[in-house]
Amino acid sequence: MKTVNNRAWLFVLPVVILVAFNALVPLMTVVNYSVQETFGNNLFFWQGLDWFQQVLRSDRFHAALGRQALFTVTILLIEIPLGVVIALAMPRKGVWVSVCLVLMALPLLIPWNVVGSMWNIFTLPDIGLLGYLMNDVLGIPYNMTRDPVAAWATVIAMDVWHWTSLVVLLAYAGLISIPDAYYQAAKIDGATPWAVFRYIQLPKMKRVLTIAILLRFMDSFNIYTEPFVLTGGGPGNSTTLLSIDLVKLALGQFDLGPAAAMSLIYFLITLLVSWVFYTLMTRNEN
Amino acid sequence: MRKRSIVPILYILFLLLPIYWLVAMSFKTTNEILGGFSLFPQVWTLENYRVIFTDPTWYWGYINSIAYVSLNTVISLVAALPAAYAFSRFSFLGDKHLFFWLLTNRMAPAAVFALPFFQLYSAVGLFDTYLAVALAHTLFNIPLAVWILEGFMSGVPRELDETAYVDGHSFPSFFLRIFLPTIKAGIGVTAFFLFMFSWVELLLAKTLTAVEAKPIAATMTKTASSAGYELGLLAAAGVLTIIPGAVVIYFVRNYIAKGFALGRV
Question: Does B246 reach chain A within 8 Å, measured CB to CB?
Answer without folding.
Answer: yes
